[in-house]
Every structure is written in structure tokens, then in C-alpha cells.
């Protein structure tokens, strides 16, 4: 560390050099990110609340009210009036909280020791972390031909040790929506916690359904759903870190609360102690600013770009893994290994992400990818295809 203080300009010159090495969303080259540039009003609100700490909410009563309002607004799009929950750092923390609550309830009510967690093969790796941290055996269930979990296989895997079943509304790799109603029937019959990971789809599916799109429901209107993850820092256009975890009622938070004697509240259920108020303020601002109409438009624009890309890929002879349901397109070229195609695109300066199951190039049509970027991408894909 430097002995003598540096000036503001010196410091920012240094920081600028680092920042120049980063990819920029606005270049339209980042094809595999679920995060995007936050909405300007969300950034403004974020900085306004940069010092507020929801870890000690008695000191930041107004910010705590903002968090509650945000949860209420998210609840209103997920068919629940008074959800319990928290704004957290993202989908990982939200998923860990949901599974921790389910595990604690199974442990406290049934004396459970060797818990098991059932997830679809398509589940995000955050559930591996949850299983590891919570000492649960992870049971990964096979998918159907449309890459969704098969509720029958889930039922076959239930044992006395099952603490929770997970369904996904917008899978990380392909954007598929699991049959949550089917999972709910099984969860209710067996009295098991059903958690829905809507980290990606939570800020698009409800608005698309309301606008007449034929997509399955996944929310609290389904009896067995006890908790839902929704990430404002993905399709919600809020800055990183903004995640959300909603539970059906307060008992799920109580199941994992610990005493926090010297704080202004006497117990705490979040994993993180000191935590941002800024994320809640930012999410509040962008949700109010866009309203349901704004989010519906955002989701529909993303789908429109998705179909534009998918149609052109087919025209050029590329093969889609599956017809997109949300704004993710996964594809291969019939004559190239995924890795070869990925390298050819990387050579042309595209920032590529590949899915693992099945192997494919995966493009997430977030806000920062505009039609003009897609036209350029399609041009490169056409050249590649002609050169083989
Ligand atoms: N659940 C689902 C369905 C997800 O897709 C993700 C992340 C998570 C949970 C975990 O969320 P956090 O990362 O907020 O904890 N999905 C993306 C992924 O891992 C995140 C991402 C975002 C990856 C931007 C790359 C990137 O550039 O693929």
C-alpha cells in the first residue's frame, strides 16, 4: 500500500485503466450474461442509499420500509399479498436461504439427520453450494425431451429424508419452465417444501402471461409452492447485487432466525449480516418507474429479439436445441463441435457462453443486445457456415 495519500485524479486515472480492461454491456458483445446494464433510475437510487445498512434495520427504518414495499410489489406479481422474505445479494443467497429454511423445518419437526434435496438436472450450481453448506445429499433428476423436470421421476426419488424439491422457472442454460403444478401435487401429497427458482424468469414470465403468452404458472397461486427466488439484478434491471427471496409466511424465516442481541432487532434470518439498503432502494425505483407495462414491454422486446435470432439461425442451417420459451437461444452447427463454433465466434470478438447439458452455444437476449448487434452476429454466423 502507498505511504503517502494519492490525489483524486491519480486514483481515478488508475481505476480508469482497470475499467478499460472490462467488457462493456453497451458493446453488445456479451452474449451469455443474465445481468445487464441497470436502469439509470435504479443507479441513482442505489447511490442515494449507498450507506444504509439493512443489517441493523432499526437505524434505517425508512430503508426497511422500502425493502418491505419491494417484497410487496414482487409478491403482487407472484400472487401473494403478504409475503415474508428479504432482498438479498442474488439468486445464490436466495436459494440457500430457501433450502436452509426447509432443512431446519424438517430437522426441527421430524428430527431429520441425513437430508436430501431433489433438483432437476438443469438446476443452477447454487444448489450444489446449498447442499454442501447444509449437509444435504443432492439428488439430480433427469429431464424430459424439452429439458424440463419430470415430476414422475421426482416422486420416485422421494424418501423420508427429502427436505425439499426444487423447480425452475427459467433455467439457466435454456430458459425452460418446469411443470410447477405437477411438482406441487407431489409436494403437497408428501408434505415437502417446494421451492421455485425464478431468479431469471421472475421478472418476465408473470408479465408475459398477463399479456396472453401461453406459459405455465409457477407462483404462490399454486398450493405447494412455499418459496420463490426472484432476481431484480437479472430481468428486473436493478444493479448487482439485487436478489429476492419470498416465503409464503413468516414461519419460514423464523425457522432460521438467530439471536442478534446488540442490534436494533433481536433476531436475524438472513445469511448476510451487514447488508445493502441500496439494492432495495434501486429495485423500488426501477419497479415504480417501469410499472407492469414497462416490464411487459421489456420481456416482449427480449422475446422478439429471441425469435429474430432463432429464425435466422434456422435459415442458415444451425440447429436449435429446443424452441425458446424465454429469451435464451441455444444452438449448434451440424458440422461443428460446440467448442469449435465457440472458438470461431470468440475469434470474431463475441463473448460466448456454452451450455453444458446439452452442449451448445447459448445466447441470452438481454437488454444490452440490440437488433444491430444481432444482425452483426448473424452475418458472422453466415460467414462461418459458408466457410465449412
Ligand atoms: N438461479 C438461476 C436460475 C440462475 O440462472 C442463477 C444465475 C442463479 C440462480 C444464481 O444467481 P446469482 O448469480 O445472482 O447468485 N445465473 C447466471 C449463471 O450463472 C448468472 C450469470 C450472470 C452468469 C451474468 C454470467 C453472467 O455474465 O449463468
Question: What would a concise description of this structure say?
Answer:
The chain has helices spanning 8-21, 40-48, 61-77, 91-110, 126-133, 151-157, 180-190, 205-210, 251-254, 278-315, 338-347, 371-387; strands spanning 84-88, 116-120, 137-141, 162-168, 193-198, 225-230, 243-247, 258-259, 267-268, 319-320, 328-332, 353-356, 359-364. The chain is α/β, with parallel strands linked by helices and 388 residues long. Bound molecules: ligand 0PR.
CATH superfamily of the largest domain: Type I PLP-dependent aspartate aminotransferase-like (Major domain)
Small-molecule components bound: ligand 0PR
The total count of strands amounts to: 13
Strand order of the largest sheet: 1-7-6-5-4-2-3
Regarding quaternary structure, what we see is single chain
**Secondary structural class:** alpha/beta
Order of helices and strands: HHHEHEHEHEHEHEEHEEHEEHEEH
Distance between the termini: 53 Å
Amino acid at each position: 500500500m502507498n505511504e503517502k495519500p494519492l490525489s483524486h485524479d491519480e486514483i481515478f486515472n488508475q481505476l480508469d485503466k482497470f475499467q478499460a480492461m472490462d467488457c462493456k454491456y453497451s458493446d453488445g458483445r456479451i452474449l451469455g450474461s443474465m445481468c445487464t446494464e441497470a436502469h439509470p433510475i435504479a443507479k441513482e437510487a442505489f447511490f442515494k442509499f449507498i450507506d444504509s445498512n439493512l443489517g441493523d434495520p432499526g437505524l434505517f427504518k425508512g430503508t426497511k420500509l422500502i425493502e418491505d414495499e419491494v417484497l410487496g410489489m414482487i409478491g403482487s406479481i407472484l400472487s401473494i399479498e403478504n409475503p415474508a422474505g428479504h432482498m438479498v445479494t442474488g439468486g445464490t443467497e436466495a436459494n440457500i436461504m430457501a433450502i436452509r429454511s426447509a432443512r431446519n423445518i424438517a430437522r426441527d419437526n421430524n428430527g431429520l439427520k441425513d437430508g436430501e434435496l431433489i433438483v432437476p438436472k438443469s438446476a443452477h450450481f447454487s444448489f450444489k453450494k446449498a447442499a454442501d453448506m447444509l449437509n444435504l445429499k443432492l439428488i439430480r433428476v433427469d429431464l424430459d425431451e424439452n429439458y424440463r423436470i419430470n415430476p414422475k421421476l421426482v416422486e420416485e426419488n422421494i424418501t423420508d429424508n427429502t427436505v425439499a424439491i426444487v423447480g425452475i422457472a427459467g433455467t439457466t442454460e435454456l430458459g425452460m419452465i418446469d411443470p410447477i403444478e405437477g411438482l406441487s401435487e407431489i409436494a403437497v401429497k408428501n408434505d415437502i417444501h417446494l421451492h421455485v427458482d425464478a431468479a431469471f424468469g421472475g421478472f418476465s414470465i408473470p408479465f408475459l402471461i398477463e399479456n396472453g403468452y401461453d406459459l405455465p404458472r409457477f407462483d404462490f397461486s399454486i398450493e405447494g409452492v412455499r418459496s420463490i427466488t426472484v432476481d431484480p439484478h437479472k430481468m428486473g434491471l436493478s444493479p448487482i447485487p439485487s436478489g429476492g427471496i419470498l416465503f409464503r409466511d413468516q414461519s419460514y424465516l423464523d425457522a432460521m432466525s438467530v439471536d442478534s442481541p446488540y442490534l436494533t432487532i433481536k433476531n436475524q434470518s438472513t445469511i448476510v449480516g451487514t447488508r445493502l439498503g441500496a439494492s432495495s432502494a434501486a429495485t423500488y425505483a426501477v419497479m415504480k418507474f417501469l410499472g407492469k407495462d414497462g416490464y411487459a414491454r421489456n420481456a416482449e422486446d427480449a422475446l422478439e429479439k429471441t425469435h429474430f435470432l432463432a429464425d435466422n439461425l434456422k435459415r442458415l442451417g444451425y440447429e436449435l436445441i429446443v424452441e425458446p420459451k424465454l429469451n435464451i437461444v441455444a444452438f449448434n452447427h451440424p458440422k461443428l463441435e460446440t467448442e469449435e463454433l465457440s472458438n470461431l465466434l470468440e475469434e470474431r470478438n463475441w463473448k460466448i457462453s456454452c451450455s453444458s447439458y446439452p452442449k451448445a452455444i447459448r445466447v441470452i437476449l438481454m437488454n444490452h443486445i440490440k437488433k444491430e448487434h444481432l444482425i452483426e452476429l448473424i452475418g458472422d454466423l453466415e460467414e462461418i457456415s459458408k466457410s465449412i
